[in-house]
């Protein structure tokens, strides 16, 4: 019988909203007991004294690039990056080649994740065929195949009529719609936030209004159809205001923010480092302040990475020619701790809630909690550990991070999926 005892840690319970001293006994991949002073006879013991023992982190927005773009990332390399970043589960976006708009691609992704055997990978299916925004996908079939949500992420659905119909059908089959909010005629040709810095740098801009117009439209359609709407990678103060007002009215809307959007501003673009080229773009100090306030008051439910790896060759070009995206799985927890927890924007429990139980609830997953009988998906965090970000050490194929050289605190030291240790930094395990 396979047993593992996590001894001497402080358990973070995001559901109950508390942190308490307890041991956790794992038997055959499930949590068998939680409590002080547990003994289990003959079993492996992991010393987690001084560490936080949290439910396994869930990233509901990653791009694993397979099938079609394996030079950027594979499901196996992405899974390794997730495990190293403390994530036990991820939801991967459908902008692969072919697009994940049919049962065959969804099944392929699940099978490749099973072969990798590291973290749980939940496919998000395309909302429209080929993510072209014209014809709806077979939503019921995709759900049956294992899709947990619907999105054309990377491509806004330009037609309000198509989005309305998509929401009506998505509600019928019981899947949330994840919206990439971007008005394409306003953002066309832009490479960074439109404002003072874009003028100084001579780069074409993407106005905040490009995001906010689509956020407003999709909130109106969500209210009209009753379909749960999740707004991806919120980046502007105007979007925050719209979401806050919609929630107050009872619209079924949720939202996420990325670590790079609550950490960096458009000033990071000043040296033309293409790792700062993301969509939506890095915004202003006022926007960053609004995002932090929205995290604190619950307007923003989830922290997700939008992990978007690219090859060195693709990013090592002029700023305007580089693709959008940066890698985020392996720096996310350190950025959350350094930028939000230590300064007091979020408590440790609130931060963990936005990385576990909230994304699980939105996607309809049973993960994100620590309770007896549940899968032993656990992330062990050392809140005191610091490290300087070095892309050369990443498990991801992607090296496109703007955080290289930054010192982060509060890092994952072990990741456990179904009772199996898939990442261990340096914790002693006594067999």
From TrEMBL:
Pathway: Pyrimidine metabolism; UMP biosynthesis via de novo pathway; (S)-dihydroorotate from bicarbonate: step 3/3
One GO molecular-function entry: allantoinase activity
Keyword Zinc: yes
Binding-site positions, substrate: 63-65, 95, 279, 310, 324-325
Active-site residues annotated for this sequence: 306
Transmembrane helix in keyword set: no
InterPro entries associated with the record: Amidohydro_3 (IPR013108), DHOase (IPR004722), DHOase/Allantoinase_Hydrolase (IPR050138), DHOase_cat (IPR024403), Dihydroorotase_CS (IPR002195), Metal-dep_hydrolase_composite (IPR011059), Metal_Hydrolase (IPR032466)
Domain Dihydroorotase catalytic, chain residue ranges per copy: 50-237
List of residues binding Zn(2+) 2: 153, 180, 233
Primary enzyme class: hydrolase
Gene Ontology cellular-component annotations: cytoplasm
Binding site for Zn(2+) 1: 61, 63, 153, 306
Co-factor remark: Binds 2 Zn(2+) ions per subunit.
EC numbers, comma separated: 3.5.2.3
Gene Ontology biological-process annotations: 'de novo' UMP biosynthetic process; purine nucleobase catabolic process
Entry keywords, A to Z: Hydrolase, Metal-binding, Pyrimidine biosynthesis, Zinc
Described purpose of this protein according to its UniProt entry: Catalyzes the reversible cyclization of carbamoyl aspartate to dihydroorotate.
Family: Belongs to the metallo-dependent hydrolases superfamily. DHOase family. Class I DHOase subfamily.
Protein name in the entry: Dihydroorotase
């Amino acid at each position: 019988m396979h047993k593992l005892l996590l001894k001497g840690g402080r358990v973070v319970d995001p559901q109950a909203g508390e942190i308490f001293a307890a041991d956790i006994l794992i038997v055959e991949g499930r949590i068998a007991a939680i409590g002080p002073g547990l003994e289990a006879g003959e079993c492996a013991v992991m010393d987690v004294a001084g560490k936080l023992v949290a439910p396994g982190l869930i990233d509901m927005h990653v791009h694993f690039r397979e099938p079609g773009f394996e030079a950027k990332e594979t499901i196996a390399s992405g899974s390794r990056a997730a495990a190293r970043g403390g994530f036990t589960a991820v939801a991967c976006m459908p902008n692969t080649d072919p697009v994940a708009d049919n049962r065959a691609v969804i099944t392929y992704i699940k099978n490749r994740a099973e072969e990798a055997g590291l973290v749980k990978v939940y496919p998000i299916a395309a909302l429209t065929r080929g993510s072209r925004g014209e014809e709806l996908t077979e939503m019921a079939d995709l759900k049956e195949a294992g899709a947990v949500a619907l999105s054309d992420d990377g491509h806004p659905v330009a037609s309000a009529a198509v989005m309305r119909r998509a929401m009506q059908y998505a509600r019928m089959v019981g899947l949330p719609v994840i919206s990439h909010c971007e008005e394409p005629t306003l953002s066309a040709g832009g490479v960074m936030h439109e404002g003072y810095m874009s003028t100084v740098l001579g780069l074409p801009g993407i106005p905040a209004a490009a995001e906010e117009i689509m956020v407003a439209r999709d909130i109106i359609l969500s209210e009209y159809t009753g379909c749960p709407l999740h707004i991806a990678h919120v980046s502007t103060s105007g979007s925050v205001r719209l979401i806050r007002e919609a929630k107050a009215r009872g619209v079924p809307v949720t939202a996420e923010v990325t670590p790079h959007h609550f950490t960096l501003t458009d000033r990071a673009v000043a040296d033309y480092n293409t790792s700062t080229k993301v969509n939506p773009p890095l915004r202003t100090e006022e926007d960053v302040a609004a995002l932090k306030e929205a995290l604190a008051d619950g307007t923003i439910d989830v922290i997700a990475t939008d992990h978007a790896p690219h090859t060195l060759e693709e990013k090592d070009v002029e700023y305007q020619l580089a693709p959008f995206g940066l890698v985020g799985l392996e720096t996310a927890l350190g950025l959350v701790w350094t930028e939000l927890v230590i300064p007091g924007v979020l408590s440790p429990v609130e931060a963990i809630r936005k990385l576990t139980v909230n994304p699980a609830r939105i996607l309809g997953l049973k993960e994100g909690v620590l309770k007896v009988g549940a899968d032993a998906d656990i992330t062990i965090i050392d809140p005191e550990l610091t490290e300087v970000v070095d892309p050369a050490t990443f498990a991801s194929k992607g090296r496109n991070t703007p955080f290289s050289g930054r010192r982060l605190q509060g890092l994952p030291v072990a990741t456990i999926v179904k009772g199996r240790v898939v990442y261990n930094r340096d914790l002693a395990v006594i067999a």
